[in-house]
Amino acid sequence: MDKTEIRVIAEGGWSYAGKNHECGKRFHIDNDQVANLQKYLDDQVIEVVVPTRVVDEQDRTKIITQTVDQVMTKLGKADKSAGIRVTDLYDADPEYVDKGGFSSFSDYAKQIYLKDAKGNVTDTMKKWLSADKAATSMGEAIDSEGGVLAPAAFSRQLLTTPVEQAIVRPRAQFVPVETNSVEIPAIDASSHASNLYGGVLAYWVDEGTAGTASKPTFGKITLKLNKMLVLAYVTSELLEDSVISLETLLPTLMGNAIAYQEDDKFLNGNGAGVPLGIYNSPAKVTVAKESGQAATTIVTNNITKMYSRMHPASINSSVWVCHNDTFPELANLTIAVGSGGSVVGVLREQVLQGVPVFTLLGRPVIFTEKAATLGSENDIALVDFGQYLIGGKSGGNVVNTSIHLKFDQDETAFKIRLRTDGQCWWKSALTPKNGSNTVSPIVTVAVRS
Q: How many domains does the chain have?
């Protein structure tokens, strides 16, 4: 009967069949007994010694192939009750799970192009297309519209570029959505005048006195995923010849497009097929303009009154979101100090986390064209984006290609499809315990035109 050579590799040796074998010891066992030692092979207590001889590359490949085939055949015939597991370590490799076996985003994009345009499905693409939920944690690799799911690493790459420039997404709360929608519990409270959380009230009582039962009022926030498409055209020459250029081009262009459209709707969306933006939230507080205030202006009292209407718990998380046109007005704002007539500027430049930024009353200022122009409502807003919920698929994005859309120009169209939604967690502004001025995580100033 054929024999297989075994070598002990555990430093503490190996105890088997009533005998102790020290590290490095070699001995032979019958081939049909190899499967019974699988546990020790898995635990790296022993190893199979493959006979060596001087061979050329072709013979070496043949020997390795035959050895692997023999071992896999024996394991396949092993008694299942013995607990022998046959797994494809390629699927279990974290690098594969993260990147799908592709070396880079450009390699992934090029192989999609080869599959769709030329019918050339590489082994790597075949492996990815056959990936199941257990291997990828994202479900099937082919979606209902024929798109190829992007591996997690490349989905992150598409969102990494814009997140460094985006306003809302890096500051908001992300909610994974497994189906088409998700309902988030929310406290339905509009006033602290008589209770908390829509009904909860604590009591001071004398000894032996029973308390009065109370309960909170719960509402819900529904995030229903909306579809966004990102389309880019790439020449065949770039796909076939300039892999390095493609690696820089596609993620940057598509990432910037994602950032721009997401921010626009997270700020301005009306909730009809798009996210419900910050500026359209029912929780927004709008501060009235000053009496006699000129058109297209911002005065110091606008800023201080907006600040006073920010919910106290949100002040340290808030940022000012301003249109570029507001800068000259903000730069000229001052506050008088004492009775001596000296003034200090309201807009100041500070260094936060090592980066120079403008601040208003100590809170960072973000200038963006997505805010309304000077004099309009929403030209300046104080916002705590931590109270904004963004729902989306945690698995990744879907990529489609087409050579037909611009066939005459020899260009391939790449389309990325994302599904996302967003809205403020608050259902309304809040009336504080004392005072009648409502507070909110979203504060703007009324029209001045």
A: 1
Q: Which one, of 258, 254, 231, 229, lies nearest residue 169 by Cα?
A: 258
Pairing of β 388-392 and β 173-176: parallel
CA atoms of 80 and 353, how far apart (whole Å): 58
Residue 311 sits at φ, ψ, to 5 deg, of -60, 130
77 or 178: whose pLDDT is higher?
A: 178
CA–CA separation, 423 and 268 (whole Å): 11
Phi, psi of 211 (to 5 degrees): -80, 165
- Tell whether 56 is covered by a domain: yes
Whole-angstrom Cα distance, residue 318 to residue 362?
A: 10
- Residue 66 belongs to a domain: yes
Q: Do residues 328 and 316 touch, judged by C-beta distance below 8 A?
A: no
Q: How many CB atoms lie within 10 A of CB 291?
A: 6
Amino acid at site 96: Y
How do residues 270-300 score in pLDDT, each as one tens digit? 999 999 999 999 999 999 999 999 999 999 9
Q: How far is CA 231 from the centre of its chain?
A: 20
Cα separation, 106 vs 117, in Å, equals 16
Counting other chains too, the contacts that 206-214 makes at CB distance below 8 Å and 24 or more residues apart are: none
State the residue range of the domain holding 52.
3-82
Cα end-to-end span (Å), the chain: 97
Opening angle at CA 272, ends 267 and 275, nearest 5: 35
- Is there a domain that residue 35 lies in? yes
In a domain, 43, yes or no: yes
pTM equals 0.60
Q: Please tell me the distance from the alpha carbon of residue 41 to that of residue 16, in angstroms, as a whole number.
A: 13
Angle value at C-alpha 227, between 185 and 265, nearest 5 degrees: 70
- Pairwise CA distance, residues 253 & 242, whole Å: 16
Contact (Cβ atoms closer than 8 angstroms) between residue 186 and residue 219: yes
Query: Of 158, 160, 155, 93, whose CA–CA distance to 127 is shortest?
Result: 93
Please name the helix (run of DSSP H) or strand (run of DSSP E) that holds residue 336, with its range, or none: strand 334-337
What is the rounded CA–CA span in Å between residue 293 and residue 289?
Answer: 7
